[in-house]
């Protein structure tokens, strides 16, 4: 039996390792973005890649998000495999038109003659004391958009495996990287190439009473909340969605039909958040199984506040525990 060698890595180290693995694997792959080359990225996600693979394959761009994405679309349509970094997810707005109008529609527009195999990497989320526009969580803007997949890992193992799957995908993939988790934990990550399937969530913990659903930086929050609930004799299913589009409807419905209660946690604002779509999935598949209304624990309907108030904006295990108790007491 072959033993797979692993290394202990943080999520940002795993992302770097995934990029390095695929730069070796795919000669047509390039990495581009602001400061990804000489500086190795502002969070060091691309550290050492330009030194290893040269300026033709890992290169800095002007400060122009629409230019980065527009250039990547052209590359992808002409046989290259671009992995573009948007330095912070909140900076993607100038490139939104390029993604919506061109990247996601080219296969449809050309009747399959052209595809756009590209990855957009974007650090996102609050909790790191960044200034405004650096902390937004706008995943729902892209899950609403046909033609692009959206993935969001919560740990190093999934970060590398999902990134490799995203690079191998024949269509555009938005790869969201939780800023708060970049160096928060370490996992054992296999050496070399492996894939985590896009479109499949993961059941991290099993319980009989309440389903907890989150992704990205909120996964540690619901894991802690499940521990708090266990102290009160409440057992929770803990689901890490991992992929936001296409979303894993089966893992959601199977869990809710077992527990009959659900709490959804995300750091994006309540209004228009992805939690609303998850509620619709539950209503469509599992409404008659519910013993209580579904609860959401989210960011507030305001801009992400400056650092002095940031922790009051973000969901916490305690807020999540309050929602768990509410669905249990209904």
TrEMBL record:
SMART domains (UniProt xref): Transket_pyr
Oligomeric form and interacting partners: Heterodimer of an alpha and a beta chain.
Signal peptide: none
InterPro entries: THDP-binding, Transketo_C/PFOR_II, Transketolase-like_Pyr-bd, Transketolase_C
Keywords tagged on the record: Oxidoreductase, Thiamine pyrophosphate
Domain Transketolase-like pyrimidine-binding positions: 9-184
Organism from which the protein derives: Salinicoccus bachuensis
SUPFAM superfamilies in the record: Thiamin diphosphate-binding fold (THDP-binding), TK C-terminal domain-like
Pfam families (UniProt xref): Transket_pyr, Transketolase_C
Cofactor(s) listed in the protein's UniProt record: thiamine diphosphate
Keyword Oxidoreductase: yes
Protein name: Pyruvate dehydrogenase E1 component subunit beta
GO terms assigned for molecular function: oxidoreductase activity
Annotated transmembrane regions: none
